[in-house]
């Protein structure tokens, strides 16, 4: 759904909510992103995640360790978090771990499993894998 479509939908919801009561209703969704180190072997995974507004810092995950953060999505449809990943002697890899227009209906709890070939996420009861950016 485009940002324009979401804005129209939001306007309609606000209009209906305002007409039926004196309470202003703004839809929101709290989302949690979890990153799991599922690399083959015992490689440590160094991650650095950011959004336009927030730098979540550098974290080193041992095998099967996780890092997670939570946030409220924007009513404007522009919430985005991206991360860099590095392990062993491999070059850094990047992926957009959350893009609101892509993910807001797919995952409220986004569970990512980092593999050498790319990140994988639980979607509708199965594991969907992606290529690095």
UniProtKB/TrEMBL annotation:
Keyword Signal in record: yes
Keyword Kinase annotated: no
A Pfam family: Self-incomp_S1
CC annotations in GO: extracellular region
Extent of the signal sequence: 1-19
Keywords carried by this UniProt record: Secreted, Self-incompatibility, Signal
Subcellular location, record wording: Secreted
GO biological process: rejection of self pollen
Coiled-coil segments on the chain, per record: none
Family listed: Belongs to the plant self-incompatibility (S1) protein family.
Name of the protein described by the UniProt record: S-protein homolog
Originating species: Vigna angularis var. angularis
Gene: Vigan.04G079500
């Amino acid at each position: 759904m485009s940002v324009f479509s979401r804005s129209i939908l939001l306007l309609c919801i606000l209009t209906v909510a305002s007409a039926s009561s004196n309470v202003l209703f703004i839809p929101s969704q709290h989302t949690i992103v979890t990153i799991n180190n599922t690399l083959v072997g015992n490689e440590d995974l160094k991650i650095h995640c950011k959004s336009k507004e927030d730098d979540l810092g550098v974290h080193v995950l041992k095998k099967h360790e996780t890092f997670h953060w939570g946030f409220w999505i924007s009513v404007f449809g522009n919430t985005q978090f991206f991360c860099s990943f590095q392990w062993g002697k491999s070059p850094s890899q990047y992926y957009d771990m959350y893009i609101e227009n892509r993910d807001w209906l797919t995952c409220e709890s986004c569970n990512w499993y980092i593999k050498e070939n790319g990140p994988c996420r639980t979607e509708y009861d199965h594991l969907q894998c992606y290529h690095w950016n």
